[in-house]
Records
---
Amino acid sequence: MFRYTKRTLVLEIFTILVALVLLTPFWILIVTSLKSGQDILTTPAFAPPKSPTLDNFKTLLSPSGTASDQIVSGLKSSAIITAGSIIGLVVFGSVTAYGLVRGKSRWTTRSYFLFLIAIILPTQLGVLPLYVEARKLGLVGSEIGMIIIYTGVLLPLSVFLYAGFFRTLPPEYEEAARIDGASPVQTFVRVVFPLMAPATGTVSILAGLIVWNDFFTPLIFLNGTDKQTLPVVMYNFVGALVSQWNLIFAIVLISMVPILAFYVIAQKKFIQGFSGGIKT
């Protein structure tokens, strides 16, 4: 039976204080984006706006402004690249991990360790040769090229996460499907993959966060094109707006909304993936 003790009270107070500290940057982001230019100069960063206004968002998203065109274009490019990368990582990561886990060859274990090594190696080490080859193939400056690059770079992480879940899946499910006459492909698509929903949610959210927030790779491969992602668009605005922090913070808040909405939708599978995997 649960007993509410002094220790529980202390832990709750400590948890609340830690949460408030962690939420402080988010609070500053919201209140600053709702301040006017005068409020920015006359009120502390922590203080709420004297007269909250949405003019910053209207200025950025006004249909007649060039800022709106760039932000909408950045949102579109980020959404396409992120969605395409997630689909690629889910498809190729799940199939590869399933083959490595269920494979009987000694090479499967060695190949799996190669994927683990690839997770450790920093991506920046291979940017130069990757850029040269991508330019030869005509993939620089295109959304398809970015999807291919992200899928290749994050594939080891996807394989690692899926492999951990496949190891918890009893082979009896697959044996029953084979007895019923299902082919290996049908067994994977209709039986195995649906059971991997928690892993798929985990891969989707982690990959989505990485791709959506990535700045370095789009800056290298999309610089000077009309396919720049939102982080690069934000970087250009920071240089142009200089000290107009209310507008800058409004852009940051706009960029956070889609990925936060995606997390809210997929958080159930994400939590399942870290708390217990599949239930058999």
Note: The first helix runs from residue 6 to 33.
---
Amino acid sequence: MSASTNINTKDIQALVKGIGLHWPKGRFFYCRFDNAAAGRALLRHLCPLTSFHDLKSHHKPDVCVNAALTHTGLVALELNNDLLYSLPEDYRDGMRRRASINGDIGVSAPAQWEDVWANGQVHLWVGVYARDEKLLEDWASGFDQWIQSNAGISVIGMQDVSRVVSSPEVPVYIDDAKSQPEKPVLLEHFGFRDGMGNPPIEGLSDKHIKGNGRLGADGEWQAFPAGEFVLGHVDTNGEIPVAPKPEAFARNGSFMVLRKLAQDVDLFRSYMQGQAEKLGQNADAIATRMVGRHRNGTPLMNSHGDYEFRYDSDPEGRVCPMGSHVRRTNPRDSFGADFGSLLVDRHRILRRAITYGKLVPTGESQVEVNGDDGQGIMFIVLNASISRQFEFVQQQWVNYGNDFNQGNDRDPIVGTRVGADKMVIPGDTGAERETVICNELQQFVRCRGGEYFFLPSLSAFEALSSDACDWRQGNEMPA
């Protein structure tokens, strides 16, 4: 593939940009088709998808629609074997077969996943985001009518999603009211600001927020080359990464990881309260140190705003613990400037998650608020390489702590519990705060299913929908 300094945002799906608060209501449809003709008809019905460019226009759409295919979906479209086998092994394997890599064991093991994720039956993810509930239901109703009138196509599962924003009317603190965010911020269900830390991308980001990118040799923050997240473009090594063939299929696409992560809010709060009683601290202070940020998103480190900070002045994690969630998932310069590119930059991910379920107010139980459906995050990651980016972070930083001098101790928030897990929270040098150990960490988050998808460009998606598609079996693979 040849490099290009110009990125066609009209050819890139909107999800790459991030579908934000302008479209707070959403629904995911998990689709299956019985044969290639039915699959192409479904793709044609969804064309044109919402593009990156559409979100930047003055006349923003009322409803955004994006779509991505599993490997079994591409096989069901009867694509040329040369194309199918040019796809990377991690994607072809799928998430279920790589459960051990991702720490999906115990309560998160594939045998415990929701039925929709069994037997590779999902072919297509359709993500619909709308300005309000009525617009969403109108779109869904029309889609359902179309499905019912077309043979060989079915929706085998759905998931409602939404953005949740903090407010004084819904307290999310545990025992310290002062920890409640004062200004409205996007939240996840443990009550911490969500959607922070995504890297700016050269040629795609509207503005460069200092601190979200990568540290250059001069100590200044830089945007990431597009090729780290979008195929067919230069990456941080100055190269065009290996991608599926032909170029027209891969270019401007990305590999998407989707995981349904259930959050046990009751367990999270009760554990923090128990540790607070044992250690003589308040529960919200302990939770903050485990997460690595305050509830409103303010860093524990001294910073310029919410993003521009470094860890080089805190090598022992006395300000922001080395084992905290945000430091594990984006270590910045924790390993020293000489190893930044090797151990951090090549493993960054583009996070496009959205929550499901309602916030559980302090003093109420999750069953009272959300019933048996519970609450959590539909965790979505975009990357050029699933194994180098998502799986590396999941295996080496979330579920193994050696890079952070944590030994076998895992991420205290999302790590997979395998026994008597703990987190050491160091005290400060002035002894105003003693070192404490939080023992017997609990499984606050569990995986309920998911899959690896390919998010094509709009042009590739349209080509896949055509009955005259050059990439089908029996056709000679174009260059």
Note: The two ends are 10 Å apart (CA to CA).
---
Amino acid sequence: MSEGISTLERHLVIGAGPVGLAMAAALKRHGIPFDLVDAASGVGGNWLHGVYRHAHIVSSKKATEYTDYPMPDDYPDFPSADQMLAYLTAYAKDRGILSSSEFNKSVASASTDGAGTWIVKFADGEKRQYKGVVVCNGHHWDKRYPDFRGKFTGEILHSKDYVGHEQLADKRVLVIGGGNSGVDMACDAGRFGSSCDISLRSGYWYLPKTFLGRPLTDIPIWGLPIFLQRAILKSIVAVTIGDYRRYGLQWPDHKIFDRHPAFGTDLLNAIRLGRVNPRPAIDHVEGKTVTFADGTTGEYDIIVAATGFNTSFPFLREGLVKVHRGVVQVYGGAFPAGIRGLYIVGWAQARNGFGRLITPLSDLYARMITLQDELTLPLGTLMESSFTQRLPTTHLVDPEKSRREIRLAHWILPLLKLRDRRLARKQKLKSDKSRLTARA
């Protein structure tokens, strides 16, 4: 914990993953006192405790690195989990964040007293008061499991709990889910298990990691309008992969980026090698027998649930921040209406790597947190009243579009002060009128 400054003058940053570290660095750069806490033993978030050690990032290092802190030159295009952890640890040290950080420190609850102070209780019983709370608890921890009829009597393993192929050795494996984690689980099971099937409710967009010798996330298409991005990527798929149905997979029933695509062709190769067998959705289970929607069955020792995660904030009062189908209902990506001093950062996912977005975004958010001191109303309330602001409808973010919006936002921040005065004056007049009416 930072010394010499009352916690009443500080903000609490919850989470020391890539987003929490970027926010802490931005707060430090803007002279905003803070404490950073994380329930884990160190920095890194999911790269410390949430991925198997042989995992690699699916976006390139250029698309993933902080724009003001390049990854080492000797890192490959797609660094490993250990390299990512080393990179984030070095960032925290070089940015001077560790002196304000506490680890193995879990937040039990955070609530406002109604007068602008946040009361934070920790799992170890400690209680503190803060000026504000910056929530960066990530979106890869609250495990979501498949829901199917019947009871499976074998083992069910969530992808987050996967450590290595030893867990799958000589077992009949069924992987549920075809995203990046599901692909990795299926490929490992195809090599080290006695058999592997993968069950998909619908088709996925599988994009090659590289194109013409360059990482796909580095080719110069990401600043184009979305319809052009989709057209180019579909052409790349047609040339390099072909029709997914030739691999026994379903054709996607959605546009690219309506859902998060999977990067890489490892699953397609594993299918061609006979190591992985595609299956449709599950109809029901009985014992170790799984019956699929097409009437076929399979016997399995273990089900690997690569079914994603819920977006949740268990330390906040239920309903304080609404989440609709995984999309957090905040304005400007972080600001809930009607709540002063609460900022929800990092719940969304950049479509092609967070690096190009998180550094300028965290800098903007730090400026807005400073601005909140000069405002009567919460930032989210001011943004809710603006005709240019809408609640998000997806958790997938276009980094280049967001960067353009961030540059524009720096110019219009002063307008929030004018809007604040106008709305505060209206609210006061309304309140005064209500009191007069009540007395009459």
Note: The chain has two domains: 7-141+310-433, 145-307.
---
Amino acid sequence: MPTDRIAIIGAGPGGLTCARILQQHGITAAVYDLDASRSVRDQGGTLDMHPDSGQHALREAGLWDDFLARARPEGQQMRLVSRDGRTLFDQVPPEADIAEGNPEIDRGQLRDLLLDSLKPDTVLWGHKMTRAEALGNGTHRLHFADGTSTDADLVIGADGARSKVRRLLSDATPLYTGVTFVETGLDDADTRHPHLAELTGSGTMMALDDNQGFVAQRNSGGHIRTYIGMRIAEDWHQRAGLDLTDTVAVREALLKKFTAWSPDLLGFITDTDTGYTNRPLFALPVPHTWTHTPGVTLLGDAAHLMSPFSGMGANLAMLDGADLAHALIESPTTDDAIHAYETVLLPRSIQAAEGAAEGINSAFSHDSATQTLAHMTQRH
């Protein structure tokens, strides 16, 4: 068991899982996050936890029962709707198996669960890392935006899509997938938007056709988060002279792009309670690998950013965190631990990223409705 100074950059699910398991085995790791506090920003939508990755990590972290108390097994429902509003596929898990599949949990609730499991002051908020300076022998000096710095024998890059730690290992940068989501949402949906709530169901509703579509997902507290997807130029709004802060103009621009779609589905555009957030989707090149470097490694999106159509992002990040923690616990040196971890991490990351690329290309293609229906039927 190494006794080196460990710095985890980023307080997302992967980094927090790693810190939690290390603490359970008496190893201290400091987590540095750029946010000013845990509640300073929205953590995003809902996640389905997979048995062999996210669920496995939660069990390893001793948090399985706490997760079950917060999870929404009914959120496993999957529905596919045609562009004219007809239901093509509707899968509700059998009641007997509803807690044994891929139960859903809000990202914010999952993060709170992990944060609450850590010792006080494990996470140092308001620490935006600006650069890492190699000092030799695997040691790095981390510099933060507030002028402070710290030295670490192991730097774990859990700092997401635009990871600064990644620069120590790789020149790769995320590339635009060709697909943009415009995020919007419905509050108190069952009361205020009953028709759209019924259309969504208890889990996820997708309507995908000819390089466009809608993905609506139930969150807790009666909220429905919707993603309006388009295969389109990354700067589509600039080309259209569109001000993304002009809610009315964005609504009209989106309606013009979905003129052939059912009025029922167009309600996800017109009835927003949250406005519109433009989210172009990025992914790292596949394969993304690096040469082993003493004193530094990556996990989660920093290592294998991929499209959300894999359903694997947070699950893989948490599995990464658990595997890295166990490698550190079981290996005689930190360098041995990194070697052991990366031997497992890199092959599975490539496989998952290839699947994610296929997934988004299938979902946003000319015959996406046919391909998605075939995939759902085969999967379920």
Note: The longest helix spans residues 334-363.
